[in-house]
Amino acid sequence: MGTYAISGCATGIGAAIRKRVEADGHRVIGIDLRDVEVVADLSTREGRQFAIEETLAACEGRLEGAILCAGVGGHIGNNALVASINYFGVADLLDGFFPALQKGEKASALVICSNSAQLMPDSVKTPLVQAMLAGDEEAARKIADEDCEGQAVYMLSKNAVGVSVRRRATEWGAAGVRINAVAPGPIDTPLLQGGLDTPGIGQAIRDFKVPVGRWGEPEEIAELVAFMIGRHGGFVHGSIWYIDGGADAMTRSDAF
Q: Is 252 a member of any domain?
């Protein structure tokens, strides 16, 4: 059994993943704003560095896994905050935990992406995604505040997350650490409820029809994650798995 760092595990998908990982006998070091082992604000560089240092101290510099679930929706009305948490709160922790993962046995990292990550044309070429991938948080926050409307900042931040996972695949694979992402659709969580409660955005969510006829449950995401980080998923690397009731297939049937 190993030690896993899981961010964003106080509620929602992260909480379900934590429960599933612990059910397999692993130790979890949770990172969130409350009710976890490491209380840290991932929206700031200082908070992310604190989270990394405290987690590495708690695991004595060795991790079998890192599962990064922390994220916020565009409905919160603070685009700069969305950019910082959704992208830099993932990328900085990935890099900070990489040395510890290299010391783990058959270690892997997994991040939560979104099935909306590819919905905007040429997302990776946009100024926001380019600033994120360049590691320029100041520019990313400025672009997010000035140029993004509606849910754009959420979708673009998740696109950057997916690209960052795939770009790490070669280096991480050579180091013996697998890295993947899952891309959920609408899942019954507090984040989804926040969107539902927001005028305009809420109605758009209700009008979107998922092919299987329902929204997903956090536990369904957790089961896929358990497979991907476990021994049966040992050849899964550098991939982004959609788990969205067929929504991506419906909207982008010829793009895969």
A: no
pTM tops 0.90, yes or no: yes
> Tell me, what CATH number does 151's domain have?
3.40.50.720
Torsional sign, CA 72, 33, 81, 138:
negative
Tokens describing residue 90: 């993932």
In single-letter form, the type of residue at position 33 comes to: L
**Phi, psi (5° rounding) for residue 254?**
-100, 0
Range of the domain at 205: 3-244
- The two structure tokens encoding residue 180: 């993947």
Question: Which residues are catalytic, by number?
Answer: 154
Is residue 152 within 8 A of residue 74, CB to CB? The reply is yes
Convert the pLDDT of each residue in 68-125 to its tens digit: 999 999 888 899 999 999 999 999 999 999 999 999 999 999 999 999 999 998 999 9
Question: Does residue 146 lie in a domain region?
Answer: yes
